[in-house]
Design goal:
Number of helices: 14
Structural class: mainly alpha
Radius of gyration: 26 Å
CATH architecture of the largest domain: Up-down Bundle
Number of strands: 5
Strand order of the largest sheet: 3-2-4-1-5
Largest sheet: 5 strands, parallel
CATH class of the largest domain: Mainly Alpha
Order of helices and strands: HHHHHHHHHHEHEHEHEHE
Shape: globular
Number of domains: 2
Strand content: 5-15%
CATH superfamily of the largest domain: MFS general substrate transporter like domains
CATH topology of the largest domain: Growth Hormone, Chain: A
Distance between the termini: 65 Å
């Protein structure tokens, strides 16, 4: 929209209001084509107008740390986005001499977000790939950080901001899908309402942050310094969501590692329950199997892992982050039963547990006899068993085909 100076030069003041009313009417008209929705999940829930009740909804979110972390990370994104609109407007005016058209820089960010959103859909496939959130955060950080160091031209700024926007799309889309999927059926509306309230609180806070950035008595940042501050806020949001949602910090390296060596196709992924405890029973052909299973299943998995992989080594740190349950054939009967009972309890509490029931990696590519541990887990945990078959893994770099680990003939 036109700036105040340009409006006063001959454009009527009501034009801006007319534009927003038109957009609102178009949105309302589009909503008429949604069709008849499902009945309310909880029609007896009263409609409360007290804003204090909204804060209680936020407290309700804190019962699920991962859900709260994703909601806060989404709000942080909108804080950065709203702040970027103000910062880029100033940057366009004072650095690129765009005058009242300084806000056109945000067009590049918006275009990048559209590309990133489509890319997130492509990379996720038929499930929610939460592991690409850190990739988006890193791209967003790098894009904003590059702006002060490129040539002061619209093209150079535009390229850097498109990269930042692509990162924004990769960051936001999986988080939004995760929040919708994570919320229980009867609580989806409640979660969405709390999320919207927090989002607008973050947007409101962006105005305060912008004043802190630009006020001469406070930080007094230059336009380029303000963009660098945007990059810092993007990095803080990325690190924060990885800490708040452990699922993300695990799936990110999983996604990178697996897609660097394998092309994974999941068949029958809809057979895995989206909620509740479940025991996955998979064949074991290579050292990469836990990573393949972890990347194929959108939910966090607790593996039963050989005790030799626990400890202070790099692999031990990885199994620790994956909250693996250590067990070994060399353990005494009581120790083995204790590990199996721990896995059963974990499944009973609504988690996904995976066991490679052969008890070791196949040296021939053939299926080995199953141990009886899976029966104890399923029986004590009272959870369904979902079999998983890893195909075409035998002969890959991490299998024992040809009695070799790395180099195959």
């Amino acid at each position: 929209l036109h700036g105040v100076d340009e409006v006063s030069a001959g454009h009527p003041y009501w034009w801006s209001g007319f534009f927003f009313i038109t957009v609102a009417l178009v949105g309302w008209s589009s909503s008429l084509f949604i069709g008849e929705g499902r009945p309310a999940a909880d029609p007896d829930r009263p409609l409360r107008w007290n804003p204090i009740d909204g804060l209680r909804e936020v407290k309700f979110l804190s019962e699920d740390r991962a859900l709260l972390g994703a909601v806060l990370a989404t709000g942080w994104f909108y804080l950065v986005g709203a702040l970027a609109l103000s910062v880029l407007n100033v940057c366009g005016k004072e650095v690129l001499d765009l005058g009242d058209g300084g806000s056109r820089l945000f067009f590049f960010v918006a275009s990048g977000i559209a590309i990133g959103s489509l890319l997130a859909s492509r990379l996720s496939g038929d499930h929610i790939e939460i592991g690409i959130v850190p990739i988006g955060g890193i791209l967003m950080t790098c894009g904003f950080a590059a702006v002060p160091f490129v040539n002061e031209t619209l093209l150079a700024y535009g390229i850097a901001l498109v990269v930042a926007g692509i990162g924004g799309g990769l960051y936001l889309v999986p988080l939004a899908a995760f929040v919708q999927d994570r919320a229980a059926g009867k609580e989806k509306g409640r979660v969405q309402g709390a999320q919207e309230m927090l989002t607008f609180m973050f947007i409101f806070a962006s105005a305060i942050v912008f004043e802190v950035f630009r006020n001469e008595r406070l930080m007094a940042l230059s336009p380029e310094g303000s963009v660098l501050a945007l990059a810092a806020l993007s990095l803080i949001g990325t690190l924060g969501v990885c800490l708040a949602v452990p699922h993300i910090s695990i799936r990110f390296p999983l996604w990178i590692l697996v897609h660097s060596f394998y092309r994974v196709t999941v068949i029958g992924g809809d057979k895995l329950p989206r909620r509740g405890g479940v025991l996955i029973v998979a064949n074991h052909l290579s050292y990469a199997d836990p990573f393949l299973v972890g990347s194929a299943v959108p939910r966090f998995i607790h593996f039963l892992a050989h005790r030799q992989f626990s400890g202070k080594s790099l692999i031990g740190m990885a199994t620790g982050l994956m909250r693996a349950i250590p067990v070994s054939k060399d353990d005494g009967p009581r120790t083995i039963l204790k590990a199996l009972d721990l896995a059963a309890k974990c499944a009973e509490e609504g988690n996904v547990v995976c066991i490679f029931a052969e008890g070791g990696i196949s040296r021939t590519g053939n299926l080995l006899p199953f141990s009886k541990g899976l029966e104890r887990i399923a029986r004590k945990g009272k959870v369904p068993i979902v079999p998983m078959y890893l195909d075409r893994v035998w002969g890959s770099i991490f299998s024992f085909r040809g009695k070799r680990f790395f180099f195959k003939r």
